[in-house]
Design goal:
By secondary structure, the chain is of the alpha+beta class. 53% of the residues lie in helices and 9% in strands. It contains 23 helices and 16 strands.
Length: 629
C-alpha cells in the first residue's frame, strides 16, 4: 500500500483534501494497534497488517480493513473508490456515521474488557499439554501445518510439564521442534539467528525478517533444553544466536536493535539465497560439492530458482562415513565453507535494520544473555546483558522514575507499556542471578512498584496494557493471550512470584494469585493459548526452592556450589548469593552465612530450610530431587 497508494500523488491529493492521515508504528504504539486491530477484527471478521482505519475526529472508527489496492480489481474495492464514498457519506449522512462509530466501539469495548474470573489448577496444565500434543507435527516438529511460528513459550511450558509429570513425550516435542527448526531455512546457517516464521510445514522457506524477540526467546528455551538433556547442540545454537545479536543487532551504546527486514533491493530473501554456481565459485570444486550435498543446494534451487541452505533431508553422520571423515572433521570443513560464504554475503546490500531500541524486547534479550551467562558460565554474555540494562536504565527512565518504551537517534519517547515493565523486570531478575549484584534486584523491585502503581486494576485484578498516566484511548484493555511474545500479565505473574520468594515480600504473591483468578475463565476455554501464563502458574503450584550460596568470592568451593546450580534445570528455584548488602534488602537470609568459614549452600522449601551443605555432591542431590506433583 505504501508503494501503490501512499506514495502516489493522486491518492495523496484525495487524502489531503478530505482526511487527516496518520501512520502508526505498531511497535512504538502497541496500545493503538491493539485497540484498532480489535475494531478491524470486529468489523471484518479477520485482522492483519497493513491495517486501514477511518475514524471520526473523536477517534471513533466507522470503517476498517486491511489491504486495499489503489483501484478496484477482481472484486476488491480500491482505496480511491472507498475514500470518495466515505467522504460523501461524511458530508451527506454524518449522523449515521457517528451512530455507527458509537455502536462499533460499544461492541468492541465489550470484547476488550471481557475478562472472566475463575480458578486455575493442575488440571489446566494437563489440558494445555493435551492440546499441544494433539496439534504437534510429529514429522517436522512445531504445531499445526503452515505457516509455522517458533512459539518458544510453548516449548518452555512443555519443559516444565515434563519436569513435573515425567511425561517423556513433552520433552520429545521440544527436542523434535528445536531440531527441525535448526535444520530448516528458518535458521540462518550462514550468519546465524532465526527468522520470524516459516511459510511451509518443513521450516524450509522463512519469512526472512529476523526479530529480536524471537531470537531472545529461542535462546532461552535452547539453554533450558540443554540443561535438561545435556545435549551440546542446544547450547551451541544459543551461543550462535548471541553471536548474531552481538555482531549485528547491538548499538554502540549497548542497546539491542529491533529487527532486520526480509528484503533487500526490494526482493524478499535476496540477501540470504545462493545459486549452486556461486557456491562452486567461492568454495572450489571439492568443498563446494560437499557443501551443496550437505545443505541441499541444487541447480534448480528450492526458492524462486535459488537456494536456501538447509539440512532438512541431510544425515551428516552418513555423509561423514561416506567421505571417510570423523564427524568433527566434516563439521570443520563445513564451517570453513560457511565462513567464506559469510564473508562474501557481507559484501551484499544488507536488508534494512530497524534500529529502534524497544524497552520490552531489550528486556527479553537482557534475560536471554543473562541466562546464557548463568548456564554456560560465560562472562561476555553477562557483560553484554549488563551494558544493555544500564543503557535502558540511563536512557529510558525519566527523572520521575517512569520507564519509557522507545529510543532512537538520541530521543526516548512514549510512557512504557505493561510489556516494557514486565520484560525489563524479567531481564533484571535474570541479571541478578547471573551476577549477584544487588543493584539489579533493587531496580527490579522499584520497577515492579511503578508497574503496580500505573497498571494494576484494583477492582478486578490484572494489569492494563497502558498506564493510568498515559494517553487515554477509547478503551483500556488488558492482554493475557500469549502470542508472538508472552503477554505482560503472564510475565508479570512470574516476576511477582520470583520477587516474593527472593525477598520474602509475601504480599507480591497475592498480586500474582489475583492475576490468575482475573483471567482464569478465558484461559480455561483454551489453555494452550496461554502457555507463558501456565508456566507462571506451574511456578506457583510447585514447591519452590530458595537457595542461598554463602562464601568468599575467591573460594573455589563457592564456584563449585554455583556450578551445580548452573547445570541443573531449576525453573522452580530462585538463587541468591549471601552478602551484607543483600541481607539489608532480604533480612531473612541474615543468618545464612559461610559455615565455620567454609562456603555453604542453604536450600529452603515450603518455608522450611534444610541443614546447610558444603559438599557440591550433596547440593546436587538436594536440587535434583523430583518436584512434587
Amino acid at each position: 500500500m505504501e508503494r501503490e497508494s501512499f506514495e502516489d500523488q493522486e491518492v495523496a491529493d484525495l487524502l489531503n483534501a478530505n482526511f487527516i492521515s496518520i501512520k502508526v508504528d505498531r511497535e512504538e504504539r502497541p496500545d493503538i494497534d491493539h485497540l484498532y486491530m480489535s475494531v478491524t477484527q470486529g468489523i471484518t471478521g479477520h485482522g492483519g497488517w497493513p491495517m486501514t482505519i477511518i475514524m471520526t475526529p473523536e477517534q471513533r472508527p466507522f470503517f476498517a480493513g486491511t489491504y486495499f489496492p489503489k483501484q478496484s480489481r477482481m472484486g476488491m474495492s480500491g482505496l480511491m473508490e472507498i475514500l470518495k464514498r466515505l467522504s460523501a457519506l461524511w458530508r451527506d449522512e454524518r449522523e449515521k456515521v457517528l451512530k455507527a462509530g458509537e455502536q462499533i466501539m460499544e461492541s468492541v469495548n465489550q470484547q476488550l474488557l471481557l475478562s472472566r474470573p475463575g480458578e486455575l489448577s493442575r488440571a489446566t496444565l494437563d489440558q494445555a499439554y493435551a492440546s499441544l500434543a494433539q496439534i504437534f507435527d510429529p514429522q517436522y516438529g512445531g504445531f499445526g501445518k503452515a505457516p509455522k511460528f517458533p512459539t518458544p513459550h510453548n516449548l518452555c511450558f512443555l519443559l516444565r510439564f515434563h519436569k513435573q509429570s515425567g511425561e517423556k513425550q513433552a520433552l520429545q516435542i521440544v527436542e523434535k521442534t528445536l531440531d527441525s527448526m535448526a535444520k530448516g531455512g528458518i535458521y540462518d546457517h550462514v550468519g546465524y539467528g532465526f527468522a520470524r516464521y516459516s511459510t511451509d510445514r518443513e521450516w524450509l522457506v522463512p519469512h526472512f525478517e529476523k526479530m529480536l524477540y524471537d531470537n531472545a526467546q529461542l535462546a532461552i528455551v535452547l539453554l533450558e533444553t540443554y540443561q535438561v538433556t545435556k545435549n551440546q547442540q542446544y547450547s551451541t545454537l544459543a551461543e550462535r544466536i548471541f553471536s548474531y545479536i552481538m555482531r549485528d543487532m547491538t548499538s554502540p551504546e549497548g542497546g539491542f536493535y529491533s529487527a532486520e527486514d526480509a528484503d533487500s533491493e526490494g526482493v524478499e530473501g535476496k540477501f540470504y539465497v545462493w545459486t549452486q554456481e556461486e557456491i562452486f565459485q567461492l568454495l572450489g570444486q571439492d568443498l563446494g560439492q560437499l557443501y551443496c550435498r550437505c545443505y541441499g543446494i541444487t541447480p534448480q534451487g528450492n526458492f524462486e530458482g535459488k537456494n536456501i541452505p538447509n539440512l532438512i533431508h541431510t544425515d551428516l553422520n552418513s555423509i561423514a562415513r561416506e567421505q571417510g571423515l570423523p564427524p568433527w572433521e566434516l563439521s570443520t570443513k563445513l564451517d570453513e565453507g560457511r565462513q567464506i560464504l559469510f564473508s562474501q554475503r557481507e559484501r551484499r546490500i544488507h536488508p534494512h535494520k530497524d534500529d529502534k531500541i524497544l524497552t520490552a524486547w531489550n528486556g527479553l534479550m537482557i534475560a536471554a544473555l543473562a541466562k546464557g551467562a548463568q548456564v554456560l558460565d560465560k562472562q561476555e554474555y553477562a557483560q553484554a546483558s549488563e551494558k544493555a540494562a544500564q543503557f535502558i536504565l540511563d536512557k529510558l527512565v525519566r527523572q520521575d522514575g517512569r520507564l519509557l518504551a522507545r529510543y532512537r537517534d538520541g530521543e526516548a519517547a512514549y510512557p512504557g507499556y505493561v510489556d516494557d515493565y514486565a520484560f525489563m523486570i524479567w531481564g533484571l531478575l535474570e541479571l541478578y542471578e547471573a551476577t549477584f549484584k544487588v543493584e539489579y534486584l533493587s531496580h527490579a523491585l522499584q520497577l515492579n512498584e511503578e508497574m503496580l502503581k500505573h497498571f494494576w486494576d484494583e477492582e478486578n485484578g490484572g494489569l492494563f496494557m497502558y498506564g493510568s498516566d498515559s494517553e487515554q484511548l477509547l478503551s483500556r484493555p488488558k492482554e493475557v493471550y500469549d502470542g508472538a511474545t508472552p503477554s505482560g500479565n503472564s510475565v508479570a505473574a512470574l516476576n511477582l512470584l520470583r520477587l516474593s520468594r527472593l525477598t520474602g515480600k509475601t504480599e507480591l504473591e497475592e498480586y500474582s494469585s489475583r492475576i490468575f483468578r482475573a483471567f482464569a475463565g478465558n484461559i480455561n476455554d483454551y489453555p494452550a493459548g496461554y502457555t507463558s501464563m501456565l508456566s507462571s502458574l506451574w511456578f506457583a503450584l510447585t514447591p519452590g526452592k530458595e537457595i542461598v550460596v554463602a562464601g568468599r568470592p575467591e573460594d573455589l568451593k563457592t564456584d563449585q556450589l554455583l556450578d551445580v546450580l548452573r547445570e541443573v534445570f531449576l525453573p522452580e528455584g530462585v538463587v541468591m548469593r549471601y552478602s551484607e548488602e543483600l541481607a539489608g534488602l532480604v533480612p531473612s537470609i541474615s543468618e545464612q552465612k559461610p559455615l565455620n568459614g567454609e562456603s555453604a549452600a542453604y536450600v529452603c522449601e515450603n518455608f522450611t530450610c534444610r541443614p546447610p551443605v558444603t559438599d557440591p555432591a550433596a547440593l546436587s542431590a538436594l536440587v535434583n530431587q523430583q518436584v512434587n506433583t
